[in-house]
C-alpha cells in the first residue's frame, strides 16, 4: 500500500511540473505606448522548451496590415499577421513576472530584450522592451481579450 501511495504522489508531482504556463493560449490587445490606441491582437503559445512566444493574429490599424518592411533577415517583407513578435519569454518563478524574452518592434524592425508582469487578476500584461539595461526602454500594456 505504501508503494502505491508513493507512486501516486510521485506521479502527481511530475504532472504538475509539466503543466503549461498561465499565459499559454491567451489572447491580448496591444496598446501603443505613444498613441494609446489599440494596434494588434496577439496570441501566446508555449514552446517545447517551456518558453513563451507570441504572434500577431490580427492588425487593428488597417494602414499597417502590410509587411514588415523594416525587419531584417527571415522577417524581411513578411506579413505582419502570423509574425512572431515575442520569443523566449520565461516565467521567472516570482508571482506573475516574466523575463529573458525578446520582442520585435515591426515599426522599426528592431528586436529588444523583453520582461513583463501579469496583473494579479490576469487582465493586464505590462511589458518593457529595452536595450542593455531595463532603464533604457519603453513600456507597453496589453489588455486581455476574452
Low-confidence stretches: 4-18
CATH class: Mainly Beta
Could you give a short account of the major beta sheet? Answer: 8 strands, antiparallel, barrel
Instruction: Sketch the topology as an H/E string, one letter per element.
Output: HEEEEEEEE
Explain the overall architecture.
The protein is globular, with a radius of gyration of 18 Å. It has 1 helix and 8 strands. Mean pLDDT is 85; it is low at 4-18. The chain is mainly β. It has one domain (21-145): Beta Barrel (Lipocalin). An 8-stranded antiparallel beta barrel has the order 1-2-3-4-5-6-7-8. The protein has one helix at 2-17; strands at residues 27-31, 38-46, 52-59, 84-91, 97-105, 110-118, 124-130, 137-145. It starts with a helix and ends with a strand.
Summarize the structure.
With 146 residues, the chain is mainly beta.
Amino acid at each position: 500500500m505504501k508503494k502505491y501511495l508513493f507512486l501516486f504522489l510521485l506521479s502527481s508531482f511530475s504532472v504538475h511540473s509539466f503543466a503549461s504556463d498561465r499565459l499559454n493560449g491567451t489572447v491580448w490587445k496591444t496598446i501603443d505606448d505613444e498613441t494609446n490606441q489599440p494596434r494588434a491582437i496577439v496570441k501566446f503559445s508555449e514552446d517545447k522548451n517551456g518558453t513563451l512566444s507570441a504572434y500577431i493574429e490580427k492588425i487593428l490599424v488597417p494602414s499597417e496590415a502590410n509587411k514588415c518592411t523594416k525587419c531584417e533577415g527571415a522577417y524581411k517583407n513578411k506579413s505582419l499577421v502570423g509574425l512572431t513578435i515575442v520569443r523566449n519569454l520565461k516565467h521567472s518563478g516570482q508571482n506573475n513576472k516574466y523575463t529573458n524574452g525578446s520582442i520585435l518592434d515591426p515599426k522599426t524592425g528592431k528586436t529588444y530584450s523583453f520582461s513583463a508582469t501579469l496583473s494579479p487578476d490576469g487582465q493586464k500584461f505590462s511589458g518593457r522592451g529595452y536595450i542593455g539595461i531595463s532603464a533604457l526602454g519603453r513600456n507597453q500594456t496589453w489588455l486581455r481579450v476574452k
